[in-house]
Amino acid sequence: MAGGRKASPVVTRAVAYLRKAQNADGGFAQMDGGDSNAQSTAFAIQGLVAAGTNPRKLKRTRTPIEYL
Predict the structure, then answer these.
(1) What is the rounded distance in angstroms from the CA atom of residue 27 to the CA atom of residue 64?
(2) What is the pLDDT, as a whole number, of residue 8?
(3) Which of 12, 23, 45, 66 could cross-link to 62 by cystine, CB 3.0-4.6 Å?
(4) pTM of this prediction?
């Protein structure tokens, strides 16, 4: 959990942002509109886990785990 505050509005907004920022290939880019890369995807996965969200549940064509 993110500092013990899994249900806080800030954590909820952060997870919503990551859901929106996920590229169609399942990965994440360094900047909005960029190509997915392993480093940004790994950071996003770490953030999701810290927020108590299973990264395997974020799926466009693939999950972030599948992208890696």
Answers:
(1) 5
(2) 87
(3) 66
(4) 0.87
